Amino acid sequence: MTEQGTADPERKARAPSARADATKKRILSAAIEQFTLKGLAGARVDEIADAARVNKRMLYAHFGSKEELWLAVLEDAYSRKRNEERLLEVGSLPPERAMALLVAFNLRYVVEHPEFVRILNEENLHQASYIRQSRFVKSLYPPLLELLDQVLLDGVRKEVFREGISPMQLYITIVSLGHFYVANQYTLSTIFDVNLMHYNALAEREAHNIDVVLRYLAK
């Protein structure tokens, strides 16, 4: 216990760090919104700073440049999705259940986080020139592919999956089934005169995606 009138050195050290972390989170949140709405070229640093309730100097102190902020947004987007994916704990489930859960998650995630789709689409317009700089994002996926490989091998051992499935190709297929659906929801809804975001339409699509993947994997 400190004497009255004497500052607690640990508390004093924590306070600036906590404020800095809170400021950084506000900037990142504002950046996600602006980049989602306007893309990398259209988003303005001063609008991001205003939305985060900081000045531009503070923003640059935390992120260095607009491009570095964009990379931080990309890393945050991938990290959030992978963190939720890990919570599924598919490695502890029967192989067919594990695959069904992973397929359903990847559809529902992009439905609930359309900003993820828009951010990835924007980065693809830039031919991955920013994410190419990130070792962090690349580090997120080898563990996932190893886990998928374990589930596939378990399915082969239990004679419910066929052999020779590439974990990478399978994962690309799984994410494509959800990503394309959300990225093209407006054009497809108009063409087929149906609201693809309606609960019933999503349930039908989820069942379809699971059926597609499980039939592909079936022995």
Automatic annotation (TrEMBL):
InterPro entries on file: Homeodomain-like_sf, HTH-type_TetR-like_transc_reg, HTH_TetR, NicS_C, Tet_transcr_reg_TetR-rel_C_sf
Sequence ranges assigned to domain HTH tetR-type in this UniProt record: 21-81
GO MF: DNA binding
Keyword presence, DNA-binding: yes
DNA-binding region, residue intervals: 44-63
Gene3D superfamilies: Tetracycline Repressor, domain 2
Source species of the chain: Phyllobacterium sophorae
Protein name in UniProt: TetR family transcriptional regulator
Lineage: Bacteria, Pseudomonadati, Pseudomonadota, Alphaproteobacteria, Hyphomicrobiales
Database matches in SUPFAM superfamilies: Homeodomain-like, Tetracyclin repressor-like, C-terminal domain
